[in-house]
Specification:
Blueprint lengths: L4 H18 L12 E6 L5 E3 L6 E7 L7 E8 L2 E7 L9 E2 L10 E10 L4 E3 L3 E7 L9 E7 L5 E6 L7 E8 L6 E7 L4 E4 L8 E9 L2 E2 L6 E2 L9 E7 L5 E6 L7 E7 L7 E6 L5 E4 L7 E9 L4 E3 L3 E4 L9 E8 L4 E7 L5 E10 L6 E6 L5 E4 L6 E11 L11 E5 L8 E9 L3 E7 L7 E8 L7 E5 L5 E5 L7 E9 L2 E2 L6 E2 L11 E7 L6 E6 L7 E8 L6 E6 L5 E4 L9 E10 L2 E2 L6 E4 L3
Parallel strand pairs: 2-9
Antiparallel strand pairs: 1-3, 3-6, 4-5, 4-7, 7-8, 7-9, 10-11, 11-14, 12-13, 12-15, 15-16, 15-17, 18-19, 19-22, 20-21, 20-23, 23-24, 23-25, 26-27, 27-30, 28-29, 28-31, 31-32, 33-34, 34-37, 35-36, 35-38, 38-39, 38-40, 41-42, 42-45, 43-44, 43-46, 46-47, 46-48
Length: 609
């Protein structure tokens, strides 16, 4: 039979519709491969034979369903050369096409392989005919020049050797702020330090360093100075923006006889320095406020005396686009019960993702971070404290915008001589009736020399410790010589000649009224009957009877089902509420006119169908 084209088309549409209607949508697709596209260098481009200068411009994605990119591998002329890991914050790293000088005046090919966290990979297109040229530029500048004053007549300079094409380094110095810079030493390549000796303790020496090769000299490093008669210049100056209008400066005070510190600021590199604040001696922090958002500021800090000034290296920082309020109303109080300083504050923003708590010891101390509170938590307990110490506390938020807020107010807490915390939750358990008893308690003292266990017989008083136990002991088994008597126990901690309060008191009576709890409770189903037989050991001699309790498994509450007389050790449960195929738990306790014993063990029984 022959079909027309229209009939065939209709049939295909019907089949396609049926098939489509039977296919469920895919909600969890398989994780796909990553992708990578290279934009530069491309085929026909040129590069130079130098390390970490030929940047590869690219775009990479992890793939559908992937948790992220893991790393990248570079291959030159088909051979692996280098691996770059994805940045810890998830952003893509800078990739460099590094080639050896032996390849100068040749054409190379290269490609990049990207791997995701699921170890799936993708290879970029192969980039061909990239011409390698000789590197004919001066080296890059050394970074982060620092100065360490070893003595009044010796200093040590050290810096980061960031160049890869240098022939050597030049160390430049000027004597005094009005002096003239000159080269005082030429060093071989890969140098990163220099010791200058024979100096005067009364002159401030200024230094800078640069690299050079056959094509010229690099820019100079930052400038550092040794300070004058007042001591060394501040070092390790850092600046961090705390929002759109606030910058925090911190530095290391290396002077011993300064009159104070000058904080200087400028907006442009070409602007003159302006002193914005004069601070007292031993200061190591300053908060600069009233700034303009998204603006770069440059700072330096100098120590000064009556006849000299010595400035730190310069640092730069750019303010943020928004101010976020920091914590307020910070209060720090020592809590005797907790044995800790409790710090509380008010949270005034929903843009915080945690609060950093800082503390210093005494007015001249340095603030250190001691803890972090989670988002929206407004209190912190500081238990790492020492008696007879005054602590200063402050806090600030870490924000969702990636910076810290200003600090809260500062509050102090004085920690007195901390009394030893008493043991608590003393319990007693009968292991062998009228014979062996286990004592258990909670140690609350942070430091102790030991635990005193006190014991007395009913009708007598405590006279002296019964046992001296090692520190951190929290349990003791006592074997009685006369099981017919009732004994009482309590414990306390001691440290040197200091003693804590006593714990609560327990006794071998196991309850009130001088009663011992029943033991060895056993429940057995009576064959061919809807009944359960109970047996137990009677350990008391003064009970008026026993209360028998039962609950259906799954219920939260025991119910009393019977009371039996004194000296009884058997009961048959045939009361209402028993059902075949159900499970039950039983317990009993003795009673008299003064109270109740502790409960016996709990016994589980199941009534078969």
């Amino acid at each position: 039979m022959k079909f027309s084209k229209i009939e065939i088309l209709i049939a295909l549409l019907v089949i396609t519709g049926v098939i489509a209607s039977c296919v469920s949508p895919i909600t969890n697709p398989e994780i796909s491969k990553p992708s990578i596209t290279i934009f530069k260098p491309i085929s026909g481009d040129t590069i130079e034979a130098v390390k970490n200068r030929n940047v590869i411009t690219y775009k990479a994605t992890a793939g559908i369903g992937s948790k992220g990119i893991s790393y990248y591998e570079i291959f030159v002329n088909g051979k692996f050369t280098e691996r770059f890991k994805q940045n810890s914050d998830g952003t893509s790293p800078t990739l460099y096409l590094n080639v050896d000088s032996a390849l100068v005046n040749t054409k190379i090919s290269y490609y990049v392989i990207v791997y995701n966290l699921e170890n799936k990979l993708k290879t970029s297109d192969v980039i061909k005919n990239v011409l390698v040229l000789k590197y004919t530029h001066p080296p890059v500048a050394p970074l982060d020049l620092q100065l360490d004053r070893i003595s009044d007549t010796q200093i040590l300079l050290f810096w980061k050797d960031s160049a890869t094409t240098e022939t050597g380094y030049e160390v430049w110095r000027k004597d005094g702020e009005t002096g003239t810079y000159r080269i005082i030493r030429t060093l071989p390549k890969n140098s990163n330090n220099f010791r200058d000796v024979g100096l005067s303790p009364y002159i401030a020496y200024f230094y800078k360093v640069r690299a050079f090769n056959q094509y010229g000299a690099s820019p100079f490093s930052n400038e550092v100075n040794s300070g004058g008669a007042g001591g060394s210049a501040p070092t390790n100056l850092t600046a961090q923006a705390l929002g759109a209008s606030i910058v925090q400066l911190d530095w290391q005070d290396n002077s011993t006889a300064e009159n104070g510190f000058k904080v200087q600021r400028r907006t442009l590199d070409t602007d003159p320095w302006t002193t914005i604040q004069i601070l007292p001696p031993n200061t190591q922090e300053y908060i600069d406020q009233g700034l303009t958002q998204l603006t770069t500021y440059h700072y330096r800090v100098g120590t000064f005396t009556s006849n000299s000034e010595a400035y730190s290296s310069e640092v730069s920082v750019t303010t943020k686009n928004v101010d976020i309020p920091g914590p307020t109303n910070l209060v720090a109080d020592f809590n005797k019960t907790l044995g800790a300083v409790k710090v509380t504050w008010s949270d005034n923003t929903n843009l915080e993702n945690g609060t950093i708590i800082e503390r210093k010891v005494g007015a001249q101390g340095t603030y250190r971070q001691i803890g972090v509170a989670a988002t929206d938590i407004t209190e912190f307990l500081d238990s790492s404290i020492t008696a007879n110490t005054l602590y200063y506390y402050r806090a600030r938020h870490s924000t969702t915008e990636g910076f810290f807020t200003p600090y809260s107010n500062v509050d102090t807490a004085y920690v007195p001589t901390i009394p030893l915390a008493a043991p608590s939750n003393l319990e007693i358990n009968e292991f062998v009736p009228n014979k062996v008893y286990g004592l258990f308690w909670t140690n609350n003292a942070r430091i102790e020399d030991g635990i005193e266990l006190w014991k007395r017989v009913q009708g007598d008083t405590y006279h002296s410790p019964y046992k001296i136990l090692p520190p951190r002991t929290h349990a003791f088994n006592d074997t009685l010589t006369d099981g017919s008597k009732i004994y009482y126990y309590k414990v306390r901690a001691f440290l040197g000649g200091e003693y804590s309060d006593f714990s609560n008191e327990v006794s071998t009576a196991g309850g009130t009224g001088g009663l011992f709890r029943p033991t060895n409770l056993v429940a057995k189903v009576v064959p061919n009957q809807l009944a359960v037989d109970l047996t137990w050991s009677d350990n008391s001699s003064n009970e008026l009877g026993f209360e028998i309790e039962r609950r259906l498994v799954g219920s939260n509450q025991f119910k009393r089902i019977a009371i039996v007389g004194p000296n009884t050790t058997f009961y048959r449960d045939q009361t209402s509420g028993l059902y075949r195929g159900s499970s039950y738990e039983y317990r009993i306790r003795a009673y008299n006119g003064q109270g109740y014993s502790d409960y016996s063990n709990v016994y589980l029984v199941t009534i078969p169908y």
